[in-house]
Each structure stands twice: as C-alpha cells, then as structure tokens.
C-alpha cells in the first residue's frame, strides 16, 4: 500500500492501521509505536485519554496538529478552525468526524477508508470517556 500523506507527515498504511489498534486499547501495538520512529502516535493514544503530560509532550515536540486533532474530537471549535487555517484539511475532518459530524465522516469515508476507521475509533473512545464522566453513579473529581 502507498503511504498516506497527512500534510507534512508521511505514514505507511500499516502504521496507520497500528495507530487505529493502539487507539482502541491494544497495549502491545501502542508500546511498539512508542519505541518506533512513530513515537508521536503512541503518545497520542495517552493524550486522547486525557493524560496531561502526553498532551504537553505533543505540544513541546512539534505535534501541535495532533493535539489540535484531539481537541477537535472533544468538540473544541477553536481547534477545528486552527486545523483548517493551517491547511490540515484531513485532520480537520478527522477532528469533526471524531465529534460525530456526519459531513466530515462522509468526506473521510469517500477519500480514505483507513483514516475513516481511525476517526471512528477516536469517536468511540471519546464517547466512552464522556459516558464515564457523565455517569451520575460515579463520583467525578
């Protein structure tokens, strides 16, 4: 398979599939990513789960676009605007798709099935986090 270009990043399809699995909770693949030259994708998985130090690492190591992707999945419109303004069109649609915007999910589905799958995985994880945080039977700090 041909590598898929996300703006200035070039990830082979097999790495994108590994990222999808790591986002879904596969610890073995996440560890592989963390030890590889694609460390940012492993760190992303922790950042997606609201790990503050991982979010700081992404920002400090020039992966602000990946942090903006997470913020966009969380529904923060300023992140969507930042991605769009900085010409991260694919990440813009992944961010909105991860926040359940049908138009962006359709856009991704038409253009790239792997990125569409990653977006659905992020949407699922963020929905699970939101559900857990909004459960009235649990005490939230």
Topology:
Blueprint: E1 4-6, E2 9-11, H1 13-23, H2 27-35, H3 39-48, H4 52-60, H5 64-73, H6 77-85, H7 89-98, H8 102-111, H9 113-133
Antiparallel strand pairs: 1-2
Helix pairs in contact: 1-2, 1-9, 2-3, 3-4, 4-5, 5-6, 5-7, 6-7, 7-8, 7-9, 8-9
Short summary of the structure?
The chain is mainly alpha-helical and 141 residues long.
Query: Distance N terminus to C terminus?
Result: 45 Å
Net shape? globular
What's the helical proportion of residues? over 70%
**Oligomerization:** single chain
Strand percent estimate: under 5%
- Give the H and E element order: EEHHHHHHHHH
Mean pLDDT: 90
Largest sheet data: 2 strands, antiparallel
| Derived structural class | mainly alpha
* Low-confidence regions: none
Write down the domain tally.
Answer: 1
DSSP summary: helix tally? 9
Number of β-strand runs: 2
Query: What is the strand arrangement across the widest sheet?
Result: 1-2
Any idea what the radius of gyration is?
14 Å
């Amino acid at each position: 398979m041909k590598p898929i270009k996300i703006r200035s990043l070039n990830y082979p399809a097999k790495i994108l599939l590994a990222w999808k699995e790591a986002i879904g909770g596969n610890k073995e693949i996440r560890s592989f990513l963390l030890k590889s030259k694609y460390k940012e994708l492993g760190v992303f998985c922790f950042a997606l789960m609201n790990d503050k130090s991982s979010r700081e690492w992404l920002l400090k190591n020039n992966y602000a676009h990946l942090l903006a992707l997470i913020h966009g999945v969380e529904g923060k419109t300023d992140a969507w605007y930042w991605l769009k303004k900085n010409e991260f069109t694919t990440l813009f649609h992944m961010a909105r798709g991860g926040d359940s915007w049908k138009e962006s999910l359709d856009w991704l589905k038409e253009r790239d099935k792997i990125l569409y799958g990653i977006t659905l995985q992020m949407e699922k994880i963020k929905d699970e986090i939101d559900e857990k945080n909004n459960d009235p039977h649990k005490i939230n700090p």
